[in-house]
Specification:
Number of helices: 11
Bound molecules: ligand LARABZUK
CATH architecture: Alpha-Beta Barrel
CATH topology: TIM Barrel
Distance between the termini: 36 Å
Number of domains: 1
Strand order of the largest sheet: 1-4-5-6-7-8-9-10
Helix content: 25-40%
Length: about 260
Amino acid sequence: MTILDRIIDQKKTELPQLLSTKPVFLSIDKARPSLYETLMSANSLQVISEMKRASPSKGDIATEVEPVEQALQYEEAGAACISVLTERAFFKGSYADLNAVANAVNIPVLCKDFIIHEVQIDYAKAAGASVVLLIVAALTDVQLKSLHAYATEKQLEVLVEVHDAEELKRALAIGANIIGVNNRNLKTFDVSLSATLEIAQLLPPSPIAFISESGILGPEDAQFVANAGAKGILVGEALMRSGNVKKSLKALQIDITAKVGENR
Ligand SMILES: O=C(O)c1ccccc1NCC(=O)[C@H](O)[C@H](O)COP(=O)(O)O
């Protein structure tokens, strides 16, 4: 059994509880910018900065970090979006973290979880997310299509995550407009930025906001994926462990104007 299988099994055990309780959060209603528009109009590599306490591959990363303080630093440093891990059993996150961050910042907020059911989208929306993640590897085609449609109906943007060419085909088939390639293989934990290169070469010439996720540790990695065509990056661990969050984040916002007009 892979780690992704284990996480999905855990999610299934949590569904009855979510389905039996109405999501109640004190959410401040905000008109946030569109992540898609931000990515498509940017002259610099856009950073989706993640609140990530722990992970299956690394164990505890930064359990003491206060989510709102971290998110405010991300926003002040010019992050395009804040990703908040809400998965509890493996990442030590929560919807409460998401809700607190969403109330504190004005930029897009991504609910980073392993979504397999509409009720999780209801919780994400109620807690204040403006973007949700759908992981192709965790879903059948039928689930992917219906969850994408459900989130879109709820006025949420959707980041559709792929890892290989086959998954990219499935993401394109449902009309995904924000596609992220996860450089981490969620079945083996292997991380390679060449996944971004491989997927970038397969993107059709349509206006897709293409981002690179995981394993981006500093400006050299950011430059590598920008050269491959990424408009944005999703960064967790490197920012969570940084002694100077703002400086580390700003160093990733590299100029991409030379690439504007290519398949980006
Ligand atoms: O991070 C993990 O160990 C992990 C394991 C299994 C499934 C998902 C996992 N991570 C989720 C993510 O996609 C990352 O948190 C995100 O892309 C940021 O990655 P990083 O910058 O490498 O922390």
